[in-house]
Specification:
This protein has 228 residues and is α/β, with parallel strands linked by helices. Helix content is 34%, strand content 26%. The structure holds adenosine-5'-diphosphate (ADP) (2 copies).
Length: 228
């Protein structure tokens, strides 16, 4: 777990388009920050720069004590949870969670993998479902498997990119509750991108409102309404 500090972050795409125009934001260790704004305002660009999938044109990005502008995604130790949870349907819950560890070929023994997966599963209350396949899980359980895959690698932070946007309203409501509960339980620094006002107002400690590549406001969900 770590704090994430953005200082005057700029993104200019190769065609010259200025998608992020100097964003500064200090995310505390363990804090849950929602990044909200209309489609095209630069949310994904900002998240992709944090995770390292997109170059930063200008400014400074720190994770913990280190400036990471030039670090590869793998060295930032961030766990991105994507829109469709990208679970492997033919693998059990155990193997889905173990997958990132197996990718790092030879780094972990079978005993270590088992210990890490079981610990993650316990944290996420999945210990009774380890031998099941994703198709036999509820939406909330699948979400937790995706998070298990993220935490098994000891991530500094979770990054969510509109994780609920493909779901129907009922499931979305359940998942909101689930995500908020898990984040409180894990206490992991979280940046959560959405264009959904309800998610913005109910999930996080603070809401950062982005418009046309600039931060308009950063406030607690309640504070957003109280400000003029
Ligand atoms: P959001 O996630 O808020 O919908 P994005 O970060 O995806 O917004 O996009 C922000 C702006 O940057 C948009 O106007 C988009 O068209 C533009 N953009 C995104 N990717 C590229 C790219 N590769 N080249 C040029 N412009 C881009
Ligand atoms: P590899 O290159 O190890 O075969 P990938 O191309 O999937 O595997 O991932 C490259 C690096 O990107 C990984 O070592 C990991 O640190 C990081 N990475 C992979 N998936 C994620 C994710 N969901 N969120 C954040 N970082 C990831």
């Amino acid at each position: 777990m770590a704090a994430i500090n953005l200082k005057d972050i700029v993104k200019r795409y190769p065609d010259g388009f200025l998608a992020v125009k100097g964003v500064s934001l200090d995310i505390r260790d363990g804090e849950f920050v929602i990044l909200v704004g209309p489609s095209g305002c630069g949310k994904s660009t900002l998240l992709r720069m944090i995770v390292g999938l997109e170059d930063i044109s200008d400014g400074e990005l720190r994770i913990g004590d280190a400036v990471v502008n030039d670090k590869a995604p793998r060295d930032r130790h961030l766990a991105m949870v994507f829109q469709n949870y990208a679970l492997y349907p033919h693998l059990t819950v155990f193997e889905n969670i173990a997958f990132p560890l197996r990718l790092q070929r030879g780094q972990f023994s079978e005993d270590e993998i088992t210990a890490k997966v079981e610990r993650a599963a316990k944290t996420l209350e999945l210990q009774d479902h380890l031998q099941r396949k994703p198709a036999n899980l509820s939406g909330g359980q699948r979400q937790r498997v995706a998070m298990g895959r993220a935490i098994v690698r000891d991530a500094n932070a979770f990054l969510f990119d509109e994780p609920l946007s493909n779901l129907d309203a009922k499931l979305r409501g359940q998942m909101r509750t689930e995500i908020a509960r898990m984040q409180r339980r894990l206490g992991t620094t979280t940046v959560y991108v959405t264009h959904d006002q309800t998610e913005a107002m109910t999930l996080g400690d603070r809401v950062a409102v982005l418009s046309k590549g600039e931060l308009q406001q950063v406030a607690s969900p309640r504070g957003l309404y109280e400000q003029p």
